[in-house]
Amino acid sequence: MIDTPSWHRVKEIIEGVLQRAPAARAATIQQMCGDDAFLRAEVESLLEAIEQASNFIERPAVQSQSFSASLPAGWIPDLGRRALEPGNALGPYTIVEFLGAGGMGEVYRARDANLNRDVALKVRPAVFALDADRFARFRREAQILAALNHPNIAAIYGLENSDGVQALVLELVEGPTLADRIAKSRISVNEALSIARQIAEGLEAAHKRGIIHSDLKPANIKLRPDGTVKILDFGLAKALDAVDVSSAPSNPEPVTSSSISHAGLIFGTAAYMSPEQARGEVVDKRADVWAFGCVLYETLTGRPAFRGQAIEDILEAVLNQEPDWSLIPPETPADILKLLRKSLEKNADRRLHDIADARIEIEDVGVPTPMRIPRKRHWPVVLALAGIAAVAIITSAFWFRIRLGSPAPETASSVKRLQIRLPDAGPPENGWSMPLGFAQLLIAISPEGTRVAYVLARQGVTQLYLHELDKLQPTPIPGTEGAFGPFFSPDGRWIGFFAENKLKKVAVSGGEPIELCAAPNAWGGSWGTDGTILFATDEGRRPTKVSENGGVPQPILIIGKGAFTRPDILPGGKAAIVSNPLLGVGVLSLETGEFRLLVADAGGGRYMPGHLVFARPGLLLAAPFDLERLALTGPETVVLEAVRTELEGVAPEPQAVFSRDGTLVYAQGGAPRNFTRPVWVDRQGKVQPLDMPARSYRTLSLSPDGRMLALIIADPRNDVWVQDLERGALTQRTFGAEPEVVTWTPDGKRIAFGSRRYGKRAFSVPRDGSSQPDPFVFGSFSPDGELVATVQGDPSTGLDLFVQPVKGTQTQQPFLRTRFTEAGPKFSPDGRWIAYGSDESGQYEIYVRPYPGPGSKWQISNDGGVHVIWSRDGKELFYRNGQKWMSVAVNLAPEFTAAMPRLLFEGPYLLVGSQSYDVSPDGQRFVVLEPVEAQIAPVTHLNIVLNWFADVKRRVGSASVQTRR
Amino acid sequence: MPLVYEELRRRAAAYLRQERTDHTLQPTALVNEAYLRLIGQEHVVWQNRAHFYGIAAQLMRRILVDHARGHRRGKRFGAAVRVALDERVGTSEPPDCELLLLDQALHELAAIDPQQAQIVELRYFGGLTETEVANVLTVSRSTVTREWLIAKGWLYRRITSGQQRSLP
After folding, report:
1. Does A228 fall in a domain?
2. A549/B23 touch (CB, cutoff 8 Å), yes or no
């Protein structure tokens, strides 16, 4: 038995060798290994591997999923299963040894007993074996290839199929591959041209017979010791493809025989793939000319013409980049450089058409003559860019032809109006309401105006639909369930959207949606040209930037307080148009976090060149806008009527979007008037209406004795009203106060409310009698009425909880300040606990903490919850989770305990603001707001206006003229 | 640990689904973030930096390998590559095979040279620089450089040769 050298010894020698200069290494190995041949073989083998592995796993795994680019060309993963072992027989062939794994399977050296020669057997792994039918067709293909008889092409001898093992019998060519040779040392220009000439000859012979290789690369070219060049695997990839494509319709199995060739192909060949191949188009012999160019470039320079760490980077280079011409050795003849450029022409029509021309060119060069020292020329890049621009122009012109019949000049008369009918899945019900209870934008249009994405609902679940405008029907995008707030990437190839409290993106071309980052309670997103996505989380309180590739979201530090929804990044990327639900539309600086109001009481602001477009209920308006000064420069004008807008009152959310070129898509319908009426619901869900007419009730609060109901009615502006539940009389208590939230003081004598007017302050009015509101506090009062728990916003921590005395000048004390959103604090009846909602887990849940603390928190809800309320006896907590009302039994003393949440009832009752229901003093009934059938027609169509900008400019222009007069 | 693992797996998966590979977040940052989010800063007491980085790298390795296994189960070889031809290259399955092979080879390397395997784990899966690895393992920077070079060669040979040409 032979002793294997010890790892310790091997490592010691390697370390010694690595410290020496390369020239001295051989001597060092000799000296250290002495006459131990095994040790020496091991050391040399490992040293060789170390040299080859220079780029191997250099990038951390999470950054680079594939290290295949650093592995030898043609390598495919070896899963450790061999089809055959030495000594196995396959027909007349006996396996001698395993040679390697290549693009089409495993390769063995085998002995042909009949002809007494060695052959190469390429064995297809069993999983990719062809069925009998396809095997027969492949055999016919292979026969054509076998007829190729040329000294520079490795011959195909035949095909073997026995015992379920399918193998190609090929000429065995001794010697290294061109890939090995290139890796080993520099190849002189003369030698390179000699190799190239032989490759060209082989290709020429095959092309004459109408056979193309379609997978030419250094790993498929062998250099025999006698200097003969042999091209391997001629036409095999294509033959397999042909077999495959023709049988595809009848074959439901997605894994096709061509997959294996493609598997190898994509690994080894991405760098040699012509642009048309990379695009998946049908290829002809010009693809071989391209690959020939790549091989010649690599032979001359030692480096692939198109490189990249990952396959997609390589293909990107193939499609869009020029090889580095400065690497071509200066002694290369000028004509050869020209030949290379003509072979590597990305446009196949302008590429060298015939490989024979390449052969002639090389032959004509004869003795190489020095050429001018090549400099990195820039014109090819410029040309390439011009080419891209031309493609873009052609594309858009083509588009115009489809849409308009002919390109239209930008005049008002060219404005066209169309409609698309939404498919049977309808728009989301309930006023297109989204998880937040706020309406969200549900339409997006790609910047170039060729595709529209919109959200439809089927059985209450929303999904994103993609509508290519040159097609009649949209297609649902798989995996986008729960989506809302879609927006396109600047190149129109991706759609960003929100679902499951995450920001996601999905490729227009298909594929699984990709999760980018968490986006709790998002309200609008915008995709910048610099590759960042700006989106508003926490209902707009935290505008955040994230790379379009995901990563760590970067919140924008806002100066002051407020929510900024539905961002639209302005050109330059330094600021965005945003909507503040309480103020209106303005500009948010993404650098300083400063917000400047542009239009009060408006929503849905978007930039259109030279203008700001925004919404008021049912209307789109526009005003001239100076992008430099970020200011309006003229009066506002109505530019579109009867637009569907969500949310009454301020910050209406218009269902309208437009593309860069002025295609407008919108839903018709005006502003909804969401009428509701208060109803009692008992613990079993039984409904008993109050005797009150349907109106725009917004939120409510029961008096401590349960006999009075304070309500906010939007009619059209919010005010406080009080319903006497015993006498059935409704009286208005404020006039133009614009309250948002309302509650009773514990003694039941006053009604406190927070107002969005007067800088979001709190006031109170007495229970009866007429008097102006007095400045007061708003929040949850402690049972003795001395303290109030409030919610305050902070630029760095979002909404936090504070407690302050109701009277006196003592300032508020923070109760809970985290970077998460805390809201809806409620003092327990004994005043020793505060229940509240927080999104710290990624969604709103209900928690309880001791007051004044310190102490740990208890999580009350287990699957989301908002609007927590204590029962008056302190034994129960109520909250709602969407349309479910939940109850949790609690014990406050001697220590806090909470049971599991229990479902009380479900109902489609209005979810709005910070309090959407209240509980009767006995804890047996709940007063909620039941939506009354929508006063607005459901959306069944989307309207499209082509060249809408012309219409906007005309209207804004005439408004400006009028004001000047 | 299982909780952290679950959280991390979710986050890493989000990373892996991205179609570009040029993001720069360090795995350790990912792990750190996951820990902080789950346990809360005040409760995490690391024995030392090495402990933390070691666990981070180990977790990332587990996550990536599990992810690769899941992929191999979920998809058929080749199907994804075919998709790649129509422009969506990158999320194909073969890289997962590579990762599994590397994982297997790394197990073998650990049997003959635990320190080298640890260096590879920290560098490749943990995303640490050579200097960081040196600090974590309290060895010199030059040792890390040298060992990393040899380990890479060993693994490369192990994976590409497909045969057990080296020592058991």
Report:
1. yes
2. yes
